Amino acid sequence: MTLPILHHFDASPFSEKIRLLMGYKQLTWGSVQVPRIMPKPALVPLTGGYRRTPVMQLGRDIYCDTALIARTLERRQPSPTLLPPAQLASIAALEQLADRQLFLAAVPLLLRPAGRQALVERLGEAFVARFQQDRAELFASGSTGRPDEAFSRQVLKPTLALLEAQLTAAPFMLGVAPTLADFALYHPIWYLRHNPAGASELDGHPRLLDWYERMAAFGHGRPQEMPAQEALTVAAGCRQWQPLPGDFDCTLELAAGRRVAMAATDYGTEPVTGELIHVGPESMTLARHDETIGVVRVHFPRQGFAVCALD
């Protein structure tokens, strides 16, 4: 089976979601470190310019957005399951709560005085200034504006209280076993725990902190450090494609072979262009040619992303 390669950086909360999922599935995976901010020259040949972290690579197939990465890993190794059919709607709702509420409410805390000072001590004032500019550009377009302190005050404490109550009767969010909802909610809590300006927000939530420790105990599986150039070599040398899930969905009125652009609609909306290959129930795929590694396929989720014809 093709080794999954995760392009990530250690402090990335969305990457932690996938690293922990790798641990729960006890997977061996390639670990490629990418820069925190643009430019990412060793990643662009694979993605065509998609800027968000992480990205997963299977040979010459590239998967963007953790919702799609998680479901792709689930298809490859369905046991133990993270998507029990009777809980799919609840999982989807909690994923939205994690990504659209809790994570965005946690973001401004990083640049509170204590959080910013910790960043400066680790990375230097010049890098932190570039980091702030990069994140401003990330939220410069799309439907989701850059979250601010007012949003955090409105959302963070009530959401943490909801999660504390959710854990009253069971060790995981939806029962006695973790689902994808737990991994989606884990990463913003992990982000708070590792932020000097955010960790105290979890005080007074003992069930949530116990759940966090149960989740963290899954670990990261078996990562194998890999230089970026080796990942490019893997893509260039691969002679097979990953299966495309489901029949081609014609409801978007775009035929295979059409030149298209795909992009996130919320933030980080830089488009990736190429030839439309597939539109499935949950994902969209285009093929693009890179002069250094040849043709790759880039996969995006349908939810939260848009596709448009270029001709």
TrEMBL record:
Positions of the GST C-terminal domain: 113-244
InterPro entries: Glutathione-S-Trfase_C-like (IPR010987), Glutathione-S-Trfase_C_sf (IPR036282), Glutathione_S-Trfase_N (IPR004045), Thioredoxin-like_sf (IPR036249)
UniProt KW keywords: Transferase
Stretches assigned to coiled coil: none
One GO MF term: transferase activity
Domain GST N-terminal per the UniProt entry, residue ranges: 2-81
Protein name (database record): Glutathione S-transferase
Organism: Kushneria sinocarnis
